[in-house]
């Protein structure tokens, strides 16, 4: 089996698009012994739309001293899965299966999750995706995960369900549309309410004003309501006998000569 690094292109055209992801990871060289210190190489991986490349030095094509060691067209990928810890005794590993298998070790679990998600999004529409995969490796006689001796056996475990990516995208789009619709409705409903400062009163401001008015009304005592009360005002008239007109209209009574006539006035009081 040949190493991927034997198939790299001597000339790569310049790219103007920004990489989706990039980072330093270890890859397992192919065509050499399965185990060994020399069979793992440190490479700078760069993910562009539709393409994954790896280089000798950090920076990739932006580093003149860096050499491209491999380019994988993502349209040829049919499996993107994790590798079991028992396979190589190394954590955070993923496998990229196309014409051959590329095993890559990520620095951490978080990096492993991010690389897998980014790669799967790029390969989600591939028509050659396999329904099953091997979490182990083929050692020349059998698969380390299931012991099957046929190298062409497609897999022993169920592969990732790519339809979940489309469901997440659809849900995110629906949530964004709902939020935009709510914002437009709030803006249009509050556009006709004026304020002295900027000419617009929001719904929250209107609700606060209404609640404040209601609280003031509730805090009034029963006497401070808007009902009208009639309070009699008694005011005696002194020296009534001194008025000739009143003497002519109300001649003094012999039985109540010592009493003075009283006029009752009604005052209308309104509590505002």
Fold and architecture overview:
With 272 residues, the chain is of the alpha+beta class. The chain folds into two domains: 4-168, Pleckstrin-homology domain (PH domain)/Phosphotyrosine-binding domain (PTB) (PH-domain like, Roll), CATH 2.30.29.30; 222-250 and 260-270, no CATH class. 25% of the residues lie in helices and 24% in strands. It has five helices and eleven strands. It has a seven-stranded antiparallel β-sheet with strand order 4-3-2-1-7-6-5, covered by helices on one side. Strands 8-9 form a two-stranded antiparallel sheet. β2 and β3 form a beta hairpin. The N and C termini lie far apart (97 Å). Mean pLDDT is 76; it is low at 191-200 and 223-228. Residues 182-261 are annotated as: Disordered.
Describe the secondary-structure layout.
Elements: E1 21-28, E2 40-48, E3 51-55, E4 68-73, E5 79-82, H1 85-88, E6 93-97, E7 101-105, H2 109-123, E8 132-133, E9 157-158, H3 163-189, H4 203-218, E10 228-236, H5 244-249, E11 262-270
Brief summary:
With 272 residues, the chain is an alpha+beta fold.
Defining traits:
272 residues; alpha+beta; PH-domain like; 2 domains; seven-stranded antiparallel sheet; two-stranded antiparallel ribbon; 11 strands; 25% helix
Average residue pLDDT: 76
Task: Kindly estimate the percentage of residues that lie in beta strands according to DSSP.
Answer: 15-25%
Topology pattern, helix = H, strand = E: EEEEEHEEHEEHHEHE
Number of H/I helices: 5
The named CATH superfamily of the largest domain:
Pleckstrin-homology domain (PH domain)/Phosphotyrosine-binding domain (PTB)
What is the CATH C-level name of the largest domain? Mainly Beta
* Coarse shape: elongated
Number of E-state strands? 11
Structural domains: how many: 2
* CATH-derived topology of the largest domain: PH-domain like
Distance between the termini: 97 Å
Radius of gyration: 45 Å
Decide which structural class fits the backbone: alpha+beta
The biggest sheet, with number of strands, parallel, antiparallel or mixed sense and barrel status, is: 7 strands, antiparallel
């Amino acid at each position: 089996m040949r190493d991927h690094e034997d198939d790299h292109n001597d000339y790569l055209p310049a790219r103007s698009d920004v990489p989706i992801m990039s980072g330093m990871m270890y890859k397992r060289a192919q065509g050499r012994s399965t185990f060994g210190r020399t069979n793992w190489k440190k490479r700078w991986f760069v993910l562009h739309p539709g393409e994954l490349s790896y280089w000798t030095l950090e920076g990739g094509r932006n580093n003149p001293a860096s050499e491209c060691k491999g380019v994988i067209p993502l349209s040829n990928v049919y499996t993107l899965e994790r590798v079991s810890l028992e396979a190589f005794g190394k954590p955070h590993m993923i496998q990229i299966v196309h014409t051959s298998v590329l095993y890559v070790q990520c620095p951490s679990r978080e990096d492993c999750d991010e690389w897998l998600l980014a790669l799967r999004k790029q390969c989600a529409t591939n028509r050659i995706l396999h329904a099953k995969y091997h979490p182990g490796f083929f050692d020349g006689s059998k698969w380390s995960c299931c012991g099957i001796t046929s190298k062409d056996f497609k897999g022993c475990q169920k592969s990732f369900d790519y339809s979940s990516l489309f469901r997440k995208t659809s849900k995110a789009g629906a949530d964004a549309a709902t939020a935009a619709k709510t914002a437009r409705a709030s803006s249009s409903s509050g556009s006709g309410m004026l304020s002295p400062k900027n000419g617009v009163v929001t719904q929250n401001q209107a609700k606060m004003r209404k609640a404040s008015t209601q609280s003031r009304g509730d805090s009034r005592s029963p006497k401070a309501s808007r009902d009208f009360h009639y309070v009699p005002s008694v005011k005696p008239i002194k020296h009534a006998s001194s008025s000739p007109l009143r003497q002519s209209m109300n001649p003094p009574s012999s039985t109540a000569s010592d009493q003075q006539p009283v006029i009752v006035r009604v005052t209308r009081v309104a509590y505002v």
